[in-house]
Amino acid sequence: MVTAVMADQLMADFNIGAASLGNFSSFYYYSYVAVQIPTGIVADYWGPRKLLTAGAILSSVGAFIFASASSIQAANIGRLIIGASMGVAWVSILKLSTRWFKPNQFAVVTGVALCLGILGALSAGVPLRVLMNLLGWRPVIFGAGVVTLIISLAIWIFVRDDPVQKGYDNYATDTTASNERPKASILSDLSNVFRYKNTWILTLVPASLMGPVLAFAGLWGIPYLTTHYALTPVKSASLISALLISCALGAPVLGALSEKTGRRKPIYFFALCISLVGWIPILFLQNIPLWLLIVLFSIVGFAAGSIVIGMAFVKESVPLALAGTVSGISNMGMEMGPMIVQPAIGMVLDLKWDGLLENGIRIYDLNAYHVAFCAILGLSILGTLLIIFAKETFCRQMHE
């Protein structure tokens, strides 16, 4: 999420335009997406603890490379390493959840986990911009690498793959530990996951829900708000925070609502519709009052919290033994949204650029943003239509 608040400084320091900036931001997602399927498989066979520890260490290395980069190419490498290393985190958390918590708590637990994770995204908003204004972006990124290195040590000390290792009950319903299953079945697991229609649908739908949020909040939202609402980067980051905070609040609430009603599909569909309707005025109307922008960001963010329903939905759509694999595939789909949309928006902005510069930074007019943001609208429409064809699981494992 750091790219949004440091977009102006990155463009000035590396002398790049919107297309290169969008590509730089997406280097995180290129590697993140690439490791999702192997991460899901390895999480099933190797265990989340080792994956999380190794991922945190590697992320620190990527942060140090990014902080010391003298060219956009070097920065891309650092960003690529960070994306690959962080690609193990969410799938590992989902895998841990299947063993440490009851099946009917999954949507709520993942909602809480997403809520806490978004606090990290919030730290990449106003706090990061304030620190950047004081110290510059390089020391801040270097410091983040140091903190992540400390976190890797904490993971290794405290995290355990199975609650039995801590003297607690194991809530997983499968009786065979993942690391005891034949290694030859890895490819068959991958093949079997795609036999289920919901795997395909619930891999593409998350991209349409979180892709716009991550593309806007993670890169293009702050340049858009600073240019066309004359807001400072700090104030723009504050507005974006409303989007993220609402998403953090929506995740556990909608997850609990889904568990209480025993339904996944209707709530997920309604949230997708709300998200689609909310994005239209944000992206295409002019001179919206700030209070209304905050309301719209809050509504869209809250609806995006329904992503936790999709996580439970897809897990229930396959045998539990394939939970790690299908979670990795679905998570890959979610990250494909910003991976595609961020550079696409940047390319359109550069094509529509009229040559205006301010302090060495390209300034894009409102028409350019409106054309570029059609990518977000199209993605939202696609997901809203696709969810109609998903098969309801009624909050239980459909294939034992």
Topology:
Elements: H1 2-5, H2 7-14, H3 18-34, H4 36-45, H5 48-67, H6 72-86, H7 89-100, H8 106-123, H9 126-135, H10 137-158, H11 185-193, H12 197-228, H13 233-261, H14 265-284, H15 290-304, H16 307-316, H17 323-351, E1 357-358, E2 361-362, H18 366-372, H19 374-386
Antiparallel strand pairs: 1-2
Helix pairs in contact: 3-6, 3-17, 4-17, 5-6, 5-7, 5-10, 7-8, 7-17, 8-13, 8-16, 9-10, 12-13, 12-16, 12-17, 12-19, 13-15, 14-15, 14-19, 16-17, 17-18
Can you tag this structure with a few keywords?
400 residues; mainly alpha; Growth Hormone, Chain: A; 1% strand; globular
The CATH superfamily turns out to be: MFS general substrate transporter like domains
pLDDT < 50 runs, ≥5 residues: 175-180
Shape: globular
Strands in their spatial order, largest beta sheet: 1-2
Report the sheet with the most strands, covering strand number, pairing sense and barrel closure. 2 strands, antiparallel
Strand portion: under 5%
H/E series, N to C? HHHHHHHHHHHHHHHHHEEHH
Strand tally is 2
Radius of gyration: 21 Å
Number of helices: 19
Structural class: mainly alpha
How far from one another are the termini? 38 Å
Broad CATH class: Mainly Alpha
Average pLDDT value?
A: 89
Query: What is the level-2 CATH architecture name?
Result: Up-down Bundle
CATH domain topology: Growth Hormone, Chain: A
Helix content: over 70%
